[in-house]
Amino acid sequence: MLAYFRQNFSFYLKANIVAYFFMILILVIGIVIGALAVKILPDDQKSELINYLHMFFTGLSQGNDDASSNNMIGMVMFNNVKTVVLMWILGFTIIGIPFVLFILFTRGFIIGFTVGFLVNEYVMRGLLFAFASILPHNLFAVPAILVLGVSATTFSLMLVRRKTYDKINIWYEAVRYSMVCIMVLAVMLVAALLEVYISPVFMKLAATFLTKH
Question: How far apart are CA 84 and CA 16, in angstroms?
């Protein structure tokens, strides 16, 4: 069973290696541009963000988190479901590929800006907090988004080529694509649980360190 899975995974990776390279490149470009955007941020907006972060760190270190986890989980899950459903729908449209790439770019930009701003203002302590707040759930969310982006793009391209290749069973491919989206959705829901219940634990530890130094 393990050998069968390994063989199929190897075949899948070889068939989509170019698509994954391109998707990862778009994500990395988003991260880099997000980090560079910190440098051109106006001073007044930077000051507002610093003040907000200071209050946020203080609240976390003192355990005064106003946002209830029970309220947050619904919002985070809804956002993750919305992202997966949107990318699933875009896969069925030939013109959806640029929008899929934009979603990936935006995800990278947010990560890059967050890490860049924290490191720019707090150096190593900011990097510590960035890892604590971003890494746990994104270990699941980013690979899931990449898989979904590749699946949506390849399915959309297959719709373009279906008239050239008569052997393509469009309904079978659509079901297989939808099954991938369902699996990605399950991973994204796990990522939401980590974001709401696990990441704050590390964030509080990091915030305590930030406020004491």
Answer: 20
